[in-house]
Amino acid sequence: MFSLLNLAATVTPAPGDEPSLRPGLDPTQVTPGLLGFLATLFLVIAVIFLIRDMTRRIRRVRYREMANLEAEEAAARKASGNGGAAPDPAAEASDGSGRRRTPGGKYGPDAP
User: Are 100 and 108 in contact (CB under 8 A)?
Assistant: First the structure.
């Protein structure tokens, strides 16, 4: 197997062989032309719109999660009888670090 790889690596093209087209073909006939350009342009525009839509959806999910966390914290404060007083920051974080949890999960901005 290595001998085939070695043979493939050592073979060089002949020095006088220049790439050329088949007789009867014009170089303008082998280019993508207007159709190829339009297809590429369509794909670029589609990818841009998909990226914008995905960014918007991810942002919306993060905002919903933050709103849910704030609602849960407010309900916990109300249930504990603390009323509207500011909660202890150390009791707010689940890991005891004193920082507020933000959405993002295992790989988010608050990941260790």
Answer: no
Check: CB of residue 73 under 8 Å from CB of residue 92.
yes
| Structural domain boundaries in the chain | 34-81
Measured distance CA(83)–CA(99) in Å, rounded: 21
Predicted TM-score of the model (pTM) = 0.45
Q: What's the longest Cα–Cα distance across the chain?
A: 90
What is the SS3 assignment for 15? Answer: coil
> Could you say which DSSP state residue 92 is in?
H
Are the CB atoms for 104 and 111 separated by under 8 Å? yes
pLDDT at residue number 86: 56
Q: What is the pLDDT of residues 92-106, one digit of tens each?
A: 445 555 555 555 666
CA-CA distance, 10 to 7, in Å (whole number)?
5
